[in-house]
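Kindly go through one protein, given below as sequence and C-alpha cells. The question is how this chain folds according to its C-alpha cells.

***
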Amino acid sequence: MTLSSQIIWLIILALPIACVSWTVTHEEVFREPREYCVDRSKTGRTLLSRKFYYLFTCEYCFSHYVTALFLWLTGYKLLMPDWRGYIIAGFSLVWVANSYISVFSFIRQDIKKEKAVISELEKKKEAGE
C-alpha cells in the first residue's frame, strides 16, 4: 500500500472508531450498561475489576479496544509491513479518532450553549410581552 493510501485509510478508518467509542461511552442508547460500568468502576472489590469497568466509561480508553478490533478486521498497517506497522497504526488511529471525538464534543457543547442562550432569550421575550 502506498503512503498516500495509508494516510487515506488512517483518516477514514479513524471515523468509525471515533463513532463507536463516542456512542458506547456517551449516547443514550448505552446509558444503562454505562451506568452499570460506572458503578462497578467505583465500587468493584479489586483494582482489576474497577479498571476493567472503567474502560467502558472513557472514550479515550475504549477507543484503544475499538482500534484493536478494527485493526484485526482490516489488517491495516502504517509505514511498516510487519507487526511494527500494527503498533504504529494502532496508536495513530487512536490519536486521530480522539481528535475527531474532541472536535465533535466541542461542536456539541457549542450547540448546547447556543440552545441555552436561545431558550433564555425566548423566555425573556415571553416575559416582556
In short: The chain has one domain: 3-102.
